[in-house]
Structures are given as structure tokens and as C-alpha cells.
Amino acid sequence: MTARAKNIQDKDTLQANTQLFHAKQGVITEQMQKVAQDENLSPELVRQEVARGRLIIPANINHTNLKPIGIGLVARTKINANIGSSSLASDINEEIEKTKISIKYGADTIMDLSTGGDLDSIRQAVIANSSAPIGTVPMYQILYDVKNDILKLDIATMLKVIEKQAKQGVSYFTIHCGFLLEHLPLLSKRKMGIVSRGGSLMAAWMLHYHKQNPFYEYFDEILKICQRYDVSLSLGDSLRPGCLADASDKAQFGELEILGELTRRAREACVQVMVEGPGHIPLNQIERNMELQKRYCDEAPFYVLGPLVTDIAAGYDHIASAIGASMAAWHGASMLCYVTPKEHLGLPNANDVREGIIAYKIAAHSADIARGRVNARLRDDAMSDARYGFDWNRQFELALDSERAREYHDESLPQEVFKDAEFCSMCGPKFCSYKISQELLKDRE
Questions:
Q1: In this predicted model, which residue has the larger pLDDT, 78 or 1?
Q2: Phi, psi at 278, each rounded to 5°
Q3: Would the pLDDT of 12 be above 50?
Q4: Where are the alpha helices (H) located in 331-413, listed in sequence order?
Q5: Are 40 and 76 contacting, i.e. CB atoms less than 8 angstroms apart?
Q6: Mean pLDDT of 41-70
Q7: pLDDT of residue 414 exceeding 90
Q8: Distance between CA atoms of 14 and 54, rounded to whole angstroms?
Q9: What is the DSSP string of 11-52?
Q10: How far is Cα 60 from Cα 168, in angstroms, rounded to an integer?
């Protein structure tokens, strides 16, 4: 247990354990210092942005091997990798492998979305094997604990599960607290209704009891738990559009306004908060979605799934969504939730996780270049030099997926004689434009 973890005795102390509380008090924490160093920012700027709520540092006091990262407008665009078991496939070793793959290929955070198997053991193993912050959707375990009968959901179980996961070291929770009873009539005109698992479960509960969303009603109790362990909140988008036809409708934006209200309440309680976003959105609507989130939620970090810009890319949704993700990040999204090739089709395996991460690393990096992030293009310029100089090993080192780049090169040029060749198998020695350019420039000297 860390030094911060020991200091959780009374309400004032509880608040003093959060990064947001320290930032408001003018204190630069060790975590802020690390983020500043990684982002090439001044520690004071990091503190100011955390204090304003535009930057969060998800860092549960009980996640002892955590490497803190910053999520917000002044930081590099971050990506999240979703992993987790299902009721049809549960293997703790596979989830550990997915965790390690996620770290290896550059996921900034990991969400354990397990719904089957020993959920506590899986989560503990994921946290133990991750240096990245871990997020969860507590609703999945709440449902598990009430024997998959959402109508048996009660407040005591809800808060007990949230605190249990906080104690384990979860650094951020997706809580579906902005979907209210009065939003239900707005769904009648939708083509696909509710596509969020957590959102659909809350809808079933609210319709049956005709009562308000308990996550909204007991939001202050959730905040107290978050204060104790410095858990950040990721306010879930229960009404995100699941197809282009439902994008940017009254239900989606009605929920977003409530998430803005809850953002302000969380900040007042010194709990760090980010807001989740769509979904399936046509390319031409992405900028407006980003601008409305900034306005409604006071520039809280926006954490978006995709968005997917077409509905017909089954098997390639990591590409369809990476297109939308790069556009969203360019216009202000702070973290991108990856989509794998298996989206809409099945539970991703370790290789699918790798494919999704690389697609989203490309999207995030592209947006960082477009937004002029500090030193964002250095790696690209170094790659250009390596390509022009036929330095193959350097090219492999600089690639986002070094192993894949080497594999493709060696597959097309298998003979040892080609390892240092000043051409590739596409152009060959006679048609290499780099070589021709070099010869032309040499002749002009």
C-alpha cells in the first residue's frame, strides 16, 4: 500500500487524496511531475489543467505499479484497450495475455469489461499485470452479483461493488448515471434503440419500477467512494448512437447535458471526471459533437468510442472507427477507445487486441501532429531519414508495430543478400525513386 493509501481517515483527508484536491490547493504531486515530464509540459501547467478539470490523472492509491498518465487537451491523445471475459469464454490467463499485449503495443489505459468467470480474480490479475490505469464498468459485476436479474438491483449491492473494485485498485469507473427516466420516450424514433449494455440494463430497471436511475440518485455516495481511493469517473454514454441513423439525436444530446451537470458536481467534490462519447457518427457530424461536449461539460476530457463513420465495415471496424477517431481527436477528444476487427462480431482475442491498438495509435498520433503537439512529428521525420537512407533496422525501430514491419519486409525479401539492399521488393533495384533521386542530386553537386 502506498503512502497516500494510508491517509484515508476523515472527509477532509479523503478529499486530500485526490489529484484534483491537491491541484486546487496549489500542490504539484509526484504524479503531476511524471505527467509533465512525459508530455514535455511544465509541472505548473499540468497542475493548473488538473485544477480546471481539463486534465485528469487516473491513479488509484492502491494500484502500486501504476505509471501515471494525463488525459486532457494539453496532453498527447491517449488510447484505451478493452479486454475482458464473457459468459461464453472465460480464461484468466488469456486476459493476462491481453493485458500484456495491450501494454506492449502502447495502450495508455485498459478497461476490464469481464462479464463471466471469477470477476474479482480476473480484475486483480489484470491490475497486477498492468502499469497502465485500469477502468471498469461496475454495472457488469453488479448484475453478476444479483444473479443476472437486473430487477434485483439494490443500492447496497451497487455501492458495495463499486467500493470493492476501488479497493482493488481500479483507477476509473464508467458509471451510467446521465440516462434519466425522462429520456426513455426519446428512444421511440430510433432505429436501434439502446446499444450500451449498461444503458439497456438501466432502462429495464427504470421501466419496471418507474423510478429514477439509481446511479443518478446516489451520485453523491459514489463520489465519496471515489474520494477515498482517488478513482476518476468516466461518465458513461448510455444513449450513444449505435448506427448512423441515430446519430446526434435528442436522446444523445439530452444525456450529454445531464453529464455536464454531473461533471460539475464531481469537480466540486474534488473527484476527477471525463465524459464518454459516441458511437456511430457520420464524418460531417463529428466536429459538432466535439464542440457540444466542450460546451455542455466545461471542457472535461472527452473519451470517445470511435466514432465509427460507416455501419458496413464488419470485420474492418477498427479501420472505419480509426477514421472517425482521428477526426474526433483533431477536434478535441482526449482519449480514444479502440475498436477491434471483431467489433459487432465476437469477443476479441490477443491478436485482435493488437490490431485495434495499432489502428488507434495511428489515429491518435495523426491527430497529435495535426494539433501541433510538442515534438509530435519527430518520429515521422526520423522515419523519413531512415527510409531515404535505406536504414531498414532504424525503420523497424521507429514503426508503431516493429515486428509487423520487419515481418513484411523479410517476407518479400527473404534472401540474406537483401537485408541491406538499397531498394525494396516493390520497386526493385532499377525503379527505386529514392535511389534515382540520390543519383540525380549527386550529379548536380
A1: 78
A2: -65, 155
A3: no
A4: 350-370, 378-388, 392-398, 402-412
A5: no
A6: 98
A7: no
A8: 22
A9: HHHHHHTSHHHHHHTT---HHHHHHHHHHT--HHHHHHHHHH
A10: 9
**CB neighbours of 29 closer than 8 A, spacing ≥ 6?**
19, 22, 23
Question: Is the model's pLDDT at 303 over the cut of 70?
Answer: yes
Model confidence, pTM: 0.92
Grid cell, residue 88, equals 461464453
User: Tens digits of per-residue pLDDT, 341-377?
Assistant: 999 999 999 999 999 999 999 999 999 999 999 899 9
**pLDDT of residue 420 exceeding 70:** no
* Whole-number Å distance between alpha carbons of 147 and 267: 34
How far CA 197 is from CA of 174, 235, 236, 237, 332, in Å, comes to 12, 14, 11, 10, 26
Contacts of 319 (CB under 8 A, 6+ apart): 313, 359
Mean pLDDT of the chain: 92
CB-side neighbour CA atoms (13 Å) of 427: 12
Would you put residue 243 in left (φ > 0), alpha (ψ -120 to 50) or beta?
Answer: beta
Q: How far apart are CA 75 and CA 337, in angstroms?
A: 16
Residue type, 422: E
Contact by Cβ (8 Å): 256, 293: yes
Chain segment 282-298, per-residue pLDDT in tens = 999 999 999 999 999 99
Per DSSP bridges, beta strands 71-72 and 55-56 are antiparallel
